[in-house]
Protein 1
Amino acid sequence: MIAVSGAYQTKFGELWDQSLEDLIVESGEGALADAKISKKKIDLVIVANMLSGKLGGQEHLGSLACQLLGLNGVPAWRVEAACASGGIAINQAVTAIKAGAAKNVLIIGVEKMTDRTNGEIATALMAAAGERERQSGLTFVGLYALMARVYFDKFKASKDDLAYVAIKNHRHASLNPKAQYPFPVELETVLKSSCVASPLHLFDCSPITDGAAAVVMSSEEGGTEIIASQIATDSVELTERDSLTELKATKLAALKAYAEAGVSPEDIDLAEVHDCFSIAEIMAVEDLGFCDKGAGFKKIKAGDFDLGGRLPVNLSGGLKACGHPVGATGVKQIVEIVTQLRGQADQRQVKNAKIGLAHNVGGSGATAAVHILRKL
Amino acid sequence: MIAVSGAYQTKFGELWDQSLEDLIVESGEGALADAKISKKKIDLVIVANMLSGKLGGQEHLGSLACQLLGLNGVPAWRVEAACASGGIAINQAVTAIKAGAAKNVLIIGVEKMTDRTNGEIATALMAAAGERERQSGLTFVGLYALMARVYFDKFKASKDDLAYVAIKNHRHASLNPKAQYPFPVELETVLKSSCVASPLHLFDCSPITDGAAAVVMSSEEGGTEIIASQIATDSVELTERDSLTELKATKLAALKAYAEAGVSPEDIDLAEVHDCFSIAEIMAVEDLGFCDKGAGFKKIKAGDFDLGGRLPVNLSGGLKACGHPVGATGVKQIVEIVTQLRGQADQRQVKNAKIGLAHNVGGSGATAAVHILRKL
């Protein structure tokens, strides 16, 4: 079986005093220390990162991580699948352990975003979309705004409904000292925030974030077991999709993950889902089977997915309030689930959590990774 | 066992009429057609690419390749390890098949480099090196020039000795219609070419190239079997290395690969090695055990590694003369080996080739991948 034996997250935020290299070292050393494993036992390093080449001029992060961490010679690479890079890295580690290619894998998700202007970052992020979408002048929030419009039309939702995603995730983040925005927000604040791409306002959007997260995965008994690891894709461009009110890649990956784990959505005690925009969390809770299609916004407002609700979602604060260093996000979700399953989540701890799910999306839904973890 | 059931290479060169997307489609469809496999059977797509985010504004190539090839839903990602991205992608496919995570994997290596200025490309390539090397003003040819200087001092080699690498690889390329420079060159041409970073002249350097290569790998009997797949790393920065006259990552990956395959260097009938610069091929034939350390330049000059020699090296023309679209190179090496083992290499065919080796390097040696293939 495959266990997560170590987990670590750096503070997420505008980290002016930490470089990409610093974040790799802090998270890597943190996860290794948490796993209490000797560096000599690490036989594979996978780095998840999207934008370091474009924003920082540094590619080749696999070898670089090995150099920085004193893991000379160890096989290593970087994986990129836009904002799903972290989820893919976890999946690759599962595969490597299953194949016998590695016994103890260090996975580091890292992104250093804030050193550039917002314009440069917005342009860089559109590399996760398609050529025609870039040529149309769309931004990422614009792509999700299009989906929100279709969703509004079909299910009679409104801007007010979106706001409850931000309110919930900020409330959770206020209990997470690692979060970029560890404070609650009021309905009025959300609704009065600037419109970015109608109907999405500032508080519907995840922020630009520096940060890293790392886990050690091992072929061993004990700890927190990964009982499903599945990925799926869809077209990069919205125009090629069958529907704009769901992410097919999420549904497909989730279906395969539930089958692999032998569990159903009702068995999930907590989840971290990919709320890059408020509409994305609404679609995610539906696509993952946590509620019916078209009911997500009502259930979020009703408190179903709150700490203390029937299935707490995004206890870390999610991408919205914990922050979204894109390559790190999928790994951070695993760190949060492991922290919860271990009972180490302090004020935001879910009681008797046994099974957790992590859902990581790339682009506007072209890649999805779903992992299910179980406490042993 | 793991077989390469399909292989395809696009023309390498300055492909002004083909976009990144066009190259993905041509190579992907080409490999699928060669494998005579239905698209429905492909259950994993891996894209090897280094610079598309930086040079073309397009990341997320795994999902994009699925969209372009009509492989909707199939798990996919992009891997990056500088110029070794292709070799790592092959290794990931081997691992996925061994783990039972996939049965038929499509691997595409692709790079579109020529749409930018030489300055932009040189800067982008330095992303494979380390921060201190960039700050020192070094270029990639400068890094290898430093290694050449140390090699010259230690083994009494000279610029003239380097020239025979280019002469051999251009001679081979003249027999390969897919090569960027399919023509022979004379000693005088090489020696009189411009000095780029002393002692390396223009003809000591691989060119800037557009191109793609793809293979289909399957868990099946028959065809061409991959009998070893190993990767290793070393420090990204030269200043951290023990020696500058060898690539430790190459030696380590080769040692593991020979052990995995149960063969020795004497058993290898042909090889594609990573000759990004002439000095790199000289170190490679030594580090791979094809001759003693310090003897590489003499053996190359003596014709040991020529078509018709005892162990033909870089029959495709190598990176030097076939071209070096960085993400594609490691996959193209596999395509060349498979073409040779199938007996389909026409004028450059090695007689009775049974075992071939592919050697792919990232950066100035921070990543190395070694694959050994056998004809069944």
Protein 2
Amino acid sequence: MLPRHVSEACQRSGRACFLLAIEGEADAAVSAIADAVVPLGAIGRTLVLLKEAGCKDVILAGQVRRPDFRTLSLDLRGARLLPKVMTAARKGDDALLRVLGATLETEGFRLVGVRDVAGELLAPHGRLGAQGPSAQHRADIEKGVSILRALGPFDIGQAIVVCDGLVLAIEAAGGTDLMLKHCVELPEALRGTAAARRGVLVKLPKQGQEMRLDLPAIGPETVENAAQAGLAGIAVGAGVALLLDRPAIVESADRTGLFVVGLKEDEWREGAAP
Amino acid sequence: MLPRHVSEACQRSGRACFLLAIEGEADAAVSAIADAVVPLGAIGRTLVLLKEAGCKDVILAGQVRRPDFRTLSLDLRGARLLPKVMTAARKGDDALLRVLGATLETEGFRLVGVRDVAGELLAPHGRLGAQGPSAQHRADIEKGVSILRALGPFDIGQAIVVCDGLVLAIEAAGGTDLMLKHCVELPEALRGTAAARRGVLVKLPKQGQEMRLDLPAIGPETVENAAQAGLAGIAVGAGVALLLDRPAIVESADRTGLFVVGLKEDEWREGAAP
């Protein structure tokens, strides 16, 4: 959904936008409005299409599942890039994205971030809906922030669930929504319920993360999944997390009784000035 | 199953053993051979039973799910202990166990570890079955060790799954078996399969973990779950991890083609002499 939001933001600001969808990866709704659809391994063709369309700035938006490199079909340019991509892929998602970004820059494109063209998608500081975090929720948020910081050097997940001081789940390769679904499998003694909400989802950029490439994002489905997991709320980094459909997020949060709060940079980034 | 293994080890070494099972928590097979079964909140009664049986040393063995403190039925002694237990529970499992251990010591019992009475259950150094780790597996093990070390101060899980450099899962409140089951849900491009095994489960004691209380353990079902997740092997700390039924572990590993390896202390503990 992020590509659609970015495309709409470009339209609103009068910026011309060429939307290139990746075959089998982009949502059907995104492919339907795309100017072109290319297979993941067709790097050469992608570069040609972008040049023919007169693109100068490129934004990478949306999720791509890690491909199975053994079965991926590649064009010549894709094949030349493969060794670098495979090496990077072993380090983590962020390393992988950096290689793709560097290739685009070598070809003369300017890599810009979602932040640069769709700033209105960024989470503001403070609470978003009717609910706010309690002192216990704030303590859980702080613990989550500390752990995500400790994991920063490893290019792992961006999200964690902490409930009354106990870490219920840490995001890894499966992503945030899958992590929230796993929380539902835990015994109710460990977690909250719709009747007695407990625990917080904390979602932040990775330490040293290339902000132009992969900002943490939440949408109404994140709120719904957090609500299903019995959580009391969600905390994201203000100014860095993307809110995909803010009105729908607030509506979901208020309907389910969850809080959604944007943390100031000094509340989550190590060494940031308060 | 650990209590049964400990009880058998005591019998083999001619040490008298009084087996106290916790109602609704211990396996039926353990309760069946227990000398007494008590509810979790009956702390006073537990202390009386241990004293009447002439116990001097106490071993805590096996898993107890975190109780729902709001519905737990307590005797007088349990009620007096509750505030301390609840505070500790917010810090993590290890903190919780320390409080229980301290209570037993206050009552004059000596807290001993499984290691002290059943050393034959400890994992040896080196490979256990027919298979051994490759260079890529060793790199995955090293990455897993580094991340578990970084998580050490937080009293979280003891286990992680790393596959070709990518972190597939980090253990939190759900335990190792649940984490392995979650790996199966990941796309096959990210993980191994029975036909092409990739990735390693690394299981270690938490940094600063009270070794008398909660040693990491694996059994044949751990091997089966790791095999289901397409993993290539399992690495545990030699001399600290418990092997619950070593012959069955080796049989499972050899049948499924997994390696099981015990890491020397300098391979996993920060600051340990090589």
Protein 3
Amino acid sequence: MYKKKPFIFWFEFASTYSFISAMVIEEKAKQYNIPIQWQPFLLGPIFKQQGWSTSPFNIYTAKGNYMWHDMKRLCQKYEIDYQKPTNFPRNGLLAARISCLLEGKAKIDFIKKIFQLNFEQDKDISDIEILGKAIKEIGYISEDIIDKAQTSSVKEILKNNTDQAIELGIFGAPTFTIGNELFWGQDRLGDAFDYYQKIDESSLSK
Amino acid sequence: MYKKKPFIFWFEFASTYSFISAMVIEEKAKQYNIPIQWQPFLLGPIFKQQGWSTSPFNIYTAKGNYMWHDMKRLCQKYEIDYQKPTNFPRNGLLAARISCLLEGKAKIDFIKKIFQLNFEQDKDISDIEILGKAIKEIGYISEDIIDKAQTSSVKEILKNNTDQAIELGIFGAPTFTIGNELFWGQDRLGDAFDYYQKIDESSLSK
């Protein structure tokens, strides 16, 4: 039995371009009929390994200025509601842990909600009350998930995701992977889908 | 009289992704019927301002590994002959100065030739003999251009290009600009062309 390796969308809640991908990936995936595995991880430890204590967009001014202009421009292009967050990068640790506990539609609804809070509504996504309210608004996720997300087993899941990202050679977000094949950046989503579609199923299961 | 601002392709001879753009931009530009201004500049001074003494692809290993894999993949996609250079980044200073002196077809032929020497034939593009041979092979460029390129007035042109790039907020190559609008990265060429096509001519000449 041969089975294609999953198409994994690696995202980080603080990442601007991850927000764009989260908003557009479902519609694009439908066109290609490709199932997506949404995978939260943390950029913090990866950036720390590179000697950065914050986002490179804060460290390298020209790059940061470009990114904020580009965000406005891309959100217009994709018709995504957007406002520049007054605090960047926001701490998405707890939200990422919660998303590790969720599956299916609940997971996607929660992830998109958190991204929208950060990049549409300029809310502090590390605030436990804001997270609680978001879960209430989604409606069908049990509110005790916030407590569950703070147990060591869940912390371990997110840590493993981040370790796996580093092992795969991921250095930024969003990144799309199929097996060991990496596509970095929201603008490479189409290339990643094309790759997934073209690969021979048998060649992938080796 | 209203006139559209030029579509400028900012490139650096050491830059891998600039090579890809140089190989594909003419055909794409023809589809859009957009004239291209090929503009050499130097990344060295820009990287130095950011505290880097070499390419960030050499400093940040995961990013570098990804880039080399991506180069192979993109060159296959675009059917560009490519081999990984044994020395990176190569010093394109003299070649950039020469290209400042050229115009029209001679300029484009020379630029593409240098990129191919670096990224297809693994040649040292800072070597004056290799540059001389390249000019001879192109056939219709006077060989004394190498001497002319080393005069202070030509050095000044390239320095001005780099200063202008910094002023525009350019931080990497390739970058495409239309007025103050920047598009960074070979994967954003289509966006840049779309932008150029859509803009109202009168709005640009303000």
Protein 4
Amino acid sequence: MNAAGKRIGSQTLVFPGRPAVQSGASVVGPKEGSGPLGQYFDVVKGDTLLGDRSWERAEVRMLGEAVELAVYKAGLKLQDIQALLCGDLLNQITASSFAARELPFPLVGLYGACSTFVEGMSLGAMMVDGAYATAVVAAASSHHDTAERQFRYPTEFGNQRPPAAQWTVTAAGAVVLGRGEGPHVTFATLGRVVDMGAVDVNDMGSAMAPAAAETIWQHLQDTGRKPSHYDLIATGDLGRLGRKLCMELLRRRGLDVSGNFADCGCLIFDFTPEVHCGGSGCGCSAAAFAGYFLGELAAGRLNRVLLVATGSLHSPGSSQQGESLPGIAHAVAIENPGQEGSSP
Amino acid sequence: MNAAGKRIGSQTLVFPGRPAVQSGASVVGPKEGSGPLGQYFDVVKGDTLLGDRSWERAEVRMLGEAVELAVYKAGLKLQDIQALLCGDLLNQITASSFAARELPFPLVGLYGACSTFVEGMSLGAMMVDGAYATAVVAAASSHHDTAERQFRYPTEFGNQRPPAAQWTVTAAGAVVLGRGEGPHVTFATLGRVVDMGAVDVNDMGSAMAPAAAETIWQHLQDTGRKPSHYDLIATGDLGRLGRKLCMELLRRRGLDVSGNFADCGCLIFDFTPEVHCGGSGCGCSAAAFAGYFLGELAAGRLNRVLLVATGSLHSPGSSQQGESLPGIAHAVAIENPGQEGSSP
């Protein structure tokens, strides 16, 4: 690898400049705070409205708070940040845009459904690695009640959710990527859109699993790594069904990930009945990474993590028009300095 | 400038590797085809439905066609392209996602409302300049009938539009950015979100003008250039009202752009009564640049263009909740080789 080619294989960007994840911050709702990862989140809100007049405004505030807290934890000022790479699930990503209007740096607005956080980390790592920035923030958010009423039914309606459904998390996560201390982003594998024809909007895990398997496979092909290189391969929000399906799809391609595979959607909640298949939403992988994995990396309990955020790229309108659910997954490798091993 | 710092000022990325706009393609509807720029577009469709069953499906097809045509015109195969940086106005940018599922390369999904095309050009130029890719496509689309029924009223409803309104164009534009021949992308100035409290969704030009003025001012500050450096400073879709307001805001900051300022929304239509203030939509600046400006650059009639695409970052939901219209504008400088002058 040299300055003339910071990519390998067909989809993977290489970051020889070793951009660091300098800090991370997570702000979650009460349900996420009382889940298995609760102790790892920076801020657990007591309610989902934050005393404001709409859930949408609450989401904006949670996202802004996560961004500002990540900057603070990195020992930086807002004026040191050169871009916010951010998205969410709301139509026209208004959570991100409205959070960004309070911030003094440019917004690079992203939409990759629940893959958005890793899309932002990929682009942000590239900006830092390529010396286009010294510090940027990648962030994403979701909110159970804003997502439910936009994609499915208003929560007040109280409809019964089918067993394959997942529970959109109320959470925002943000990381500062820069030239300071922290685990390195070593690779980013950008995902293609994969559509296997799934049409059930209440089973997004199955719709996204083929894209996750494809991106994981491609990442390993491009880098020449084995699954065992990673202490943890963590998908974003496949949930219980999608996680199983992804592992099976990888197994059929000769890849055994059974020893080091996790899904943020399966980690974030106890499997109480209403949660069904697990957590989902942009905020799921963002908060799980910024809140939990990053701390494990700092403590050295994890040294090599492949974070694979997965998105279902449908809209309510596209489903009503009979379209299927295209999936996408982007992956970033985050590794502690000196722990990358001998792989390329 | 050196490898340790490919940015200047607070918001501007520098591309010393001179990524080239290798080709551009534009696919537009009949109304755009019969407008003043009609002769410059590659494909003018005879109707807005393309014989398909929904306008949304027609938009997907126009966008995919623009991407494929741009790749063809660059003398490349789809397999040579390493990413599609793309967005549109539909909820969850389904036009982009559904177009991308037919394409064999990764999707970097973007949302910057009508600033999306330049957001994609900025990121794409960075990918090529930084050697993370040898060829990528930046693209955007909009469709009058899909946008009207999502943001305002179904067109069948036939409501009367107020004088400040603009006409969302039916158009897709795409460019190939790579290491081949063509005018260079020399700078990108990423925009901050600027919200002056405008609330009229039928006057988006006024809502976006402050962001446009801010980004143009910042670009000139960062680069040390004067407005007269450019043969043309072209905003995306401010329309007649927003264009005037932007020029006035710049005048108050001591910048006279009266001699070389244009707005794609003012260029794309004759001012027939129903068009009111001009064109708008992601496809407006995308098709105007790919169809018109790029040809003028190739012919040497333009040598230095600053393209400033502007977006109103609201959603129908945010407006119904009483929120104002945050604006954003991103800018890219596109210059013919050897014609960049002595400015930094």
